[in-house]
Each structure stands twice: as C-alpha cells, then as structure tokens.
C-alpha cells in the first residue's frame, strides 16, 4: 500500500494539515504545545525516512498524481525530488527547532497559534512538492494566509499595517504570476482530456527549442516580479524589515528561514526551466538588481540599532547573493545555492532563537541599550558567536562551502559583480561582529544584569544548529548528491 | 419551462396565501417549500429535457443545458438566501408574504431572461425582473432613504428600458434581409459592414444592459439604491438580479452579435476597465460596510464583464461558476451584516471574540470575494482570466483586472482586520441581534460549500455538459 496510494509527499503535506486542524480544538496550553511538538517531530521522521530513498529516483513512493480537474488539465501531482528534497528537509527540521526553542513562551490562544503554525508548515511543504502549476499556485497563496493571521494577531505594536503591507504586496505579485501562468498554459500541448495542461513537464516544453511559443520575455518578468517580491530582491524588499520586526519571533523564524526560500525555489524549479532564453537575456539586469540589494542592505544593516531589523537586512543581503548566484547560470553557482538555502535557513533560525531569548528576558531590542551579556550568559554567547561566524561564512562553518561555491559561480559569470558582491562579506563581518561586541561583550549594565543563561529547551535547539553548522561545514557531500540531478537538468536546459 | 411557470404560479400562491396566513413567520416556510419544488422540477428538466408543461413557445424561448444550469445556480442561491435571511423579512414591514411573492416574480423574470430567444422575450424578462425590484427597494415605507432609492431606481430603470426598446426597434428595422426579433436570425441579415441602424441599435442595447448590471459609466444608481433599500433586499438585488442581467447580456451578445464581436469589443473593453477602476477605487474609501459591498458588487461585475470580452467556452463556464460563488458569498456576508446594529466597519470590531463562528465564516466569504485559492471565488476569477487570455489581444486589460483584484484585497481585509485584530467598543451590548444556532450551522454549511466548490469546480461546471 505504501508507495502506491500513500506516498511520502502525502504524508509530508497531510500530517501537518491534520495535526494543525486538530490543534485548534486543544484549548489547554500544555496539551497544544506537546501535541504540536510531537506532530512536527513525526513529520521530521518522515522527511528523514524519505531521504533514504534519495538515490532511488524511480521509487514510487516519491511521486503521486491524482486527477483533479481533468478537463482543465490540472492534477494533484506532487513529487519529491532534488531541490524539493533539500527544502522539505529544511522545513521539517526547522519547525521542531522552532517549537523546542520557544517552548517556554506563552502565547494567548495557544491552540490557534500552534494550529496556524502547523497549517503554514503544510502550505510550505506543498509549495516544495507540487509538480502541477495550478497546485503550486494554490499552495503558494495558501502558505500566506496562516502567516497573515499569525503576524496580525500575535505581533508587535504596528503589526496590522506591517502585515497588511506584506500581504497585499505578496498577493499582487502572486496575481501577476497567475496571469503569467495562464498565458503559458494556453501555449502548452494538449493532453488526452484537455486542450492544455498544467503539468510541470508541459510547462517546461512550451518554450523549448523549436516550439513556436511567443511572449517569453514579458512572461518571464511577470513570474520574476512575483518571486522577487517573495525573496525579496531590491527594489521589492520594502515590506520585509517591517514585517520581520513586527511579527512574533517564532513566525519570523518561519518567514526568514523557510518562506523566503519559496522564492528561490520557485526560480530554480519554475522560472529558469520554463524561460531559459529569457533568463539568459535578462541575466545582467537580475544580477545587477541582486548585487545592488546586497550592498544596499548590508550598508543599512550597519546603521541599524534594532536587533531584529539588523538581522532582517542581513537576510536581504544573503538572499540577494543567492539570487545572483542562481542567475550566474552555471553549475557551481547553482550547486552553491542549493546548499546555501539549507544553511541560511538553519543559521538564521539560530540567530532568531538567540535574539528571542534576549528580547524575552530583557524586553529590550536596541543595541545601544544592551551590553555585556556574555558576563552572565556565557553559553548563550558561545552559541551566538558560532552562529554569527556561520552567518559571515567563516571556514569550518556550513555557510562557507555554500558561499565559496556561489562566489565561484558568480566569478565565472562576471569578475566585477563577484568583486562587488565580495565586499558584502566584509560588510557582513562589520555589522555582525560590531553587534556581538556591543551587545555581548563589555561591561554589563543594569538592564542586562538580570539575564539568565540558556535553559534546556533552548540549549537543545541551539545545540542541534551548532552541530549542523559544523557537520555540514566539514562534510557537505550528502547535500550535493541530493541536488546533483536537478542541477544537471537545469544547466542542460539553459545551455 | 418548469421554472418559469412554477415560479410565477408560486408567486401568486404566496400573494394569496398572505391573505390567509396570520403569523409572520409561516410565509418563509411556504416559500422555501415552493423553492425546493421548483429546484427539483428544474433539475428534472435539465436531466431529461422534458418539462411538465407542453406549451408551444414558437421558438421564443430556448432551453439547453447552459440556460437550465444557470437557473439551477440561481435557484440554489435563492434557497440559501431564504434559509439565511428569511427571518429578516419580518423586520422590513407587515406584508411579508407579498415580499416573498415579489421575489418569486423576480425569479420568474430571471428565468425568462436566461432562456429568451427573441428580443421581445428579452424585454419581457428584464422588465419582470426589474419592476418587483423597484417595489422591494421602496418597501420600507417610513424610511426616506428607501423611498428615494425606489424612485431613483424606478426612474433610471424606466429610462434604460426605453433605450433598450429603441435599440430593439432599430435592430428589427435595420435588418434588410430578414426582419425578425429572433436573436439567432439577426446576424444573418447583413454583410461584413454593419448597417448604421444595427450599429445604433447595438449600442443602445449595450447601454441598457450595462445599466442593468451596473457597469460603469452607467453605475451611478447602484450605491444609492443598494444603500437605501432594506438590507435584506439589497442582498437579493446585488446577487440574483445582477446575475439575471448578466446571463441576458451574454446570451444576447453571443447569439445575436457574436460573429461581429471585434467591432463592439473595444466598447466592452472600455466599459470593463472603467467598471473595475471605479468599483474598486471608490470601495476603498467607504466607511459603511453596506455601501462598500454595493461598490464591491460593481467591481465584481467588472470581472464578470471579462466573460463578455472573451465570449468563448471558459467564459461561459466561468460566468456560471463566478455567479454562483459571488452570489453565495455575498448573500452570506449580507446575512451576517443584517444581524449587526452598526453597519460601519468599526461595528465589526472584535467580532471574532463575541461570535467566532460568524467571524470565521465571514472570513471565508471575504476570502472568496477577494479571490484567494481554495475558495470558489478564486476559481471564478481564474476562469475569467483564462477566458480573457484565450481570446487574445488586450493583455493590458487582464493585468489591469488583476491589479484591481489586489486593490480589492484592501477593503475586504479591512473587515477581517476589524473582526480579528481590533478590540470591540466599550459598550457591551455591541451589535448582535438574534443569532440562533440554526443560523450558525447554515453559515458553516455555506462556507463549506464555497471551499468545496473551490476545490472541485467541476461540481457546477460538469452540469453544463450533461
């Protein structure tokens, strides 16, 4: 039965969905938390099990397709492959980490909070697994709705405007993508039951060499705008710092750790293969925008006084680098991005855990008001320093491998862009180290004197992240194997 | 034929029943029973193709699966309307069964407008649809706004009907070969160049139909009329009457003028763009939810006009789906609105804490109107966009429509924000009139249907291919 009607993608999508719906009925806080944690760990187990089949591409338990709207040519088709594997693993490992790290935090209406978190996990899984374009669009929007409610209900003071801006901006991008999808759909080849088809392979074939399809250029931009808003890429990034700052930190972890990867993933899975010629044609513009964003965001990060906004801007810089590396359109760059997506997810979640700790205990987010935390919380500082080094991409950490490959790829494309982007490493070091020095080292002041060191639950979460940082930093090969086939396919198409 | 005759008959039954029924709440049950019978009769006719009444209509009416499916959708929407808002009829005035009778007559007019085959029947259907609506608008006799709205609606409606008749006369007279009212015969009478009389007639009919569906720039009556009418009747007018107008619009222009579409398509493009722009932009600034829903109905009409722009298979499939989805969502929203004392957006503050079921179902309705996936409203918008894209040309119109849909998210989400994220006002007895458990269950069923249709639009559309 397993492998035919119940497959890994099924479990990965429906576990969080059903668990989330049940959570709404668990009124007691303790029960809701325990149930949510158990459900997310179970999803993680499923994901790890699916990784065992990474080399067996023909295993039937990895793909599933169900007739949904036959006459339109859309089916409920999900599949676990290459890039999707890395990102579903990221999703399934992030949520338990988030739940463990925030276990002690009390949210009002906990049943709704945890239910919505699990529903957003379901939406995210769906985005990474869908191989039917309409289904992909469904999950793309659906991942947004629980996050909207989470940020608006449990966020900071200015949450309503910030989240609303975030929602309308992203919604607009998605609608433009819908128009693009429809136009590409109308040029797909007929199937047995319908005149056109939404399946991934049909979409890949539309602009393949020798077909007569038109409009590749402006359709590329329609799609790219939607993904650029999600990632975000300069100049579509204005929603991000406010949204990250105003959300409750657990939700910010989801947003920055996983949701931004939706944009990068969509570029790799849907944008480049469907519009190869346009990708080559507009390569320069996109890399220019990305690199501009990197420098711009890094410079602003240096000037930030608020911890959350600093990490938000640093995230824009990192994602900009990844986007530039994808559009360098060579194997090294894209392989680097595959790995870095996972790394950045883990690292940034680690950073947010530390920040959440500081904010929860001291109630202060301003760098100028904090100092000397290391005196009272040495373990916390050690964890933070390691994660911060990973953020800067020091050798021995996971991010070093990813960034090295990305820069190599970018260098192969253009020396100048690589050089300018390379400045960002220095800038990242500036803002990260200066933040650490001001906040953690030096003399404790009255505000920071009351801080306690990490407790068990945070220790577990941070410990796992630190271990992963070093393990992947020293032995990244498994990830490369996972992604190998997709990268190969992608570069072939672009050629 | 079943639906037409049975709705008219039941309207008369309700009218006379009013003389014998003493209590105010019984007419509702009589109406629901009648509606169920009519619905079953229509399904029977859709399935088998035979009607109970063997009347020779001499080709004046035409019954096929498209028309009958549309009538089905309208009847189901009206059923939901009766179930959700039936009790609110009693608050309008004393003549409850007359109100139901008028609604049945409107349904009869909608059925004729859905199945007409000659221009005279079109006129008949539109008039039968509109005149009871004028009366219903003014039924709150002591309210000055209601009187004003009724007069405004009547005068402007009469004007537009006059224009439509003039247009019909021109089309009849302008046909040099075959002088006929039959819409399938009209486009046979001339060559590649349209005679001037036909062109004038076409424009006049276009104007009149645009008035009926409140398309810009003929929409100016809509906000005042919808705002002045008793809310329970606004709910019906904004959905069913508009749907009737649309079905007449698309059937007329597809059958009679479909072959010369490139000649009048530019007019439709301008009207659609203006409707989308004006509807969405003015809705943003509204403080009263009732008025905002009036403008939002104009905006939704703009999307439905894309079906007229396209005139292909997805357009017709989509129009039926869109009509159904939009009707049910709006009827549900109005049903909740009627229960509130305060019609402004601030009146919705904190609803999620006081009445969570109402808040969640209202959210589903609002998401459907916005066009978020998993709801029927998204499928409707998707079909409209698909139809317009398939037609080719004017791709800027599609992007414009999508931009307007994003704008619509702004005002629909203002209500969601008020419900969930704002605290309710200090005065404790805030807003709720009688909310029974049955009402809540019905709302949940409605919301579930919207989600199910959002996942499986085939449930409605497959009937077209029956």
What does this structure look like?
The complex is a heterodimer of chains A (495) and B (466). Chain A has 495 residues and is an all-alpha fold. Chain A has a domain at 296-495. Chain A has 21 helices and two strands. In chain A, strands 1-2 form a two-stranded antiparallel sheet. In chain A, helix 3 (82-101) packs antiparallel against helix 20 (456-474), helix 15 packs across helix 18 and helix 18 (398-413) packs across helix 20 (456-474). The longest helix of chain A has 32 residues, at 331-362. Chain B has 466 residues and is an all-alpha fold. In chain B, 74% of the residues lie in helices and 0% in strands. Chain B is built from 19 helices and no strands. In chain B, helix 9 (221-228) packs across helix 12 (289-310). Chain B is globular. Classes of the chains: A mainly alpha (495), B mainly alpha (466). The A-B interface holds A 68-71, 137-138, 141-142, 145, 149, 152-153, 159-160, 164, 167-168, 171-172, 175-176, 178-179, 182-183, 185-186 and B 367, 371-374, 382, 385-386, 389-390, 395, 398-399, 402-403, 405-406, 409-410, 413, 417, 420-421, 456-458, 461.
């Amino acid at each position: 039965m397993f492998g035919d009607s119940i497959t890994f993608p099924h479990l990965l999508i429906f576990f969080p969905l059903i668990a989330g719906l049940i959570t709404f009925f668990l009124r007691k806080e303790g029960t809701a938390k325990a149930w949510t944690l158990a459900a997310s760990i179970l999803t993680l187990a499923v994901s790890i099990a699916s990784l065992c089949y990474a080399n067996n591409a023909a295993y039937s338990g990895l793909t599933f397709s169900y007739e949904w709207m036959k006459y339109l040519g859309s089916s409920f088709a999900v599949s676990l492959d290459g890039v999707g594997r890395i990102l579903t693993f990221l999703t399934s490992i992030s949520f338990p980490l988030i739940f463990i790290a925030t276990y002690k935090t009390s949210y009002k209406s906990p049943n709704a909070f945890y239910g919505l978190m699990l529903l957003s996990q379901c939406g995210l899984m769906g985005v990474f697994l869908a191989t039917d374009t309409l289904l992909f669009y469904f999950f793309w929007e659906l991942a947004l709705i629980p996050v909207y409610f989470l940020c608006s209900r449990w966020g900071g003071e200015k949450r309503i405007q910030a989240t609303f801006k975030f929602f309308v901006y992203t919604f607009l991008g998605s609608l433009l993508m819908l128009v693009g999808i429809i136009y590409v759909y109308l040029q797909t080849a007929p199937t047995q039951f319908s005149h056109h088809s939404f399946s991934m392979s049909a979409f890949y074939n539309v602009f393949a060499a020798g077909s007569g399809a038109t409009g590749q250029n402006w359709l590329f931009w329609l799609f790219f705008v939607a993904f650029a808003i999600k990632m975000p890429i300069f100049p579509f990034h204005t929603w991000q710092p406010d949204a990250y700052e105003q959300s409750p930190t657990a939700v910010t972890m989801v947003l920055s750790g996983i949701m931004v990867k939706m944009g990068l993933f969509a570029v790799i899975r849907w944008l480049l293969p469907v519009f190869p010629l346009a990708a080559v044609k507009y390569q320069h513009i996109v890399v220019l925008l990305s690199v501009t964003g990197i420098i711009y965001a890094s410079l602003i990060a240096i000037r930030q006084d608020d911890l959350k906004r600093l990490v938000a801007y640093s995230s824009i810089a990192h994602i900009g680098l990844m986007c530039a590396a994808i559009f360098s359109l060579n194997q090294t760059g894209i392989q680097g991005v595959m790995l870095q997506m996972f790394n950045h997810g883990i690292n940034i979640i680690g950073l947010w855990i530390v920040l959440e700790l500081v904010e929860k205990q001291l109630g202060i987010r301003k760098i100028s008001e904090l100092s000397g935390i290391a005196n009272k919380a040495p373990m916390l500082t050690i964890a933070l320093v390691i994660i911060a080094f990973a953020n800067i991409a020091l050798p021995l950490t996971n991010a070093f491998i990813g960034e090295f490959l990305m820069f190599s790829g970018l260098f192969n494309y253009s020396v100048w862009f690589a050089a300018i982007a390379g400045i960002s490493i220095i800038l990242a070091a500036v803002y990260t180290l200066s933040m650490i020095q001001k906040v953690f080292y030096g003399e404790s002041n009255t505000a920071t004197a009351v801080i306690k060191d990490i407790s068990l639950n945070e220790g577990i979460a941070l410990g796992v992240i630190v271990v992963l940082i070093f393990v992947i930093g020293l032995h990244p090969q498994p990830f490369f194997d996972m992604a190998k086939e997709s990268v190969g396919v992608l570069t072939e198409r672009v050629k | 034929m079943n639906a037409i005759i049975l709705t008219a008959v039941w309207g008369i039954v309700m009218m006379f029943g009013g003389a014998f029924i003493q209590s105010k709440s019984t007419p509702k049950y009589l109406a629901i029973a009648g509606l169920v019978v009519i619905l079953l009769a229509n399904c029977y006719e859709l399935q088998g193709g035979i009607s109970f009444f063997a009347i020779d209509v001499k080709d004046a009416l035409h019954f096929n699966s498209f028309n009958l499916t549309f009538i089905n959708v309208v009847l189901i929407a009206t059923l939901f309307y009766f179930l959700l808002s039936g009790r609110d009829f009693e608050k309008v005035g004393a003549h409850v069964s007359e109100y139901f009778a008028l609604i049945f007559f409107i349904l009869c007019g909608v059925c004729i407008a859905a199945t007409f085959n000659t221009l005279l029947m079109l006129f008949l259907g539109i008039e039968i649809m509109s005149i009871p609506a004028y009366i219903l608008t003014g039924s709150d006799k002591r309210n000055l706004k209601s009187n004003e709205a009724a007069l405004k609606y009547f005068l402007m409606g009469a004007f537009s009907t006059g224009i439509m008749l003039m247009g019909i006369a021109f089309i009849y007279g302008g046909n040099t070969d075959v002088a006929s009212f039959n819409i399938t015969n009209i486009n046979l009478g001339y060559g590649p160049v349209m005679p001037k009389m036909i062109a004038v007639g076409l424009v006049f009919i276009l104007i009149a139909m645009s008035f009926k569906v409140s398309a810009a720039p003929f929409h100016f009556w809509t906000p005042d009329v919808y705002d002045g009418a008793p809310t329970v009747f606004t709910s019906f007018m904004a959905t069913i009457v508009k749907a009737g107008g649309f079905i007449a619009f698309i059937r007329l222009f597809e059958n009679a003028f479909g072959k010369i579409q490139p000649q009048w398509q530019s007019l439709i493009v301008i009207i659609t763009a203006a409707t989308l722009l004006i509807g969405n932009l003015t809705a943003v600034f509204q403080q009263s939810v009732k008025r905002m829903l009036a403008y939002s109905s104009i905006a939704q009409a703009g999307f439905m006009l894309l079906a007229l722009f396209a005139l292909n298979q997805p357009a017709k499939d989509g129009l039926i789906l869109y009509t159904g989805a939009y009707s049910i969502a709006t009827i549900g929203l109005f049903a909740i609105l009627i229960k509130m004392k305060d019609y402004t957006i601030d009146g919705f503050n904190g609803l999620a804490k006081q009445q969570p079921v109402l808040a969640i179902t209202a959210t589903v309705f609002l998401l459907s109107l916005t066009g978020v996936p998993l709801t029927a409203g998204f499928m409707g918008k998707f079909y409209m966009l698909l139809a317009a894209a398939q037609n080719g040309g004017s791709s800027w119109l599609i992007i414009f429509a999508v931009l307007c849909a994003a704008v619509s998210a702004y005002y629909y989400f203002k209500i969601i924000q008020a419900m969930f994220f704002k605290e309710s006002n200090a005065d404790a007895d805030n807003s709720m009139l009688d909310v029974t458990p049955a009402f809540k269950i019905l709302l949940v069923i409605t919301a579930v249907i919207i989600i199910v249709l959002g996942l499986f639009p085939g449930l409605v559309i497959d009937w077209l291919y029956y």
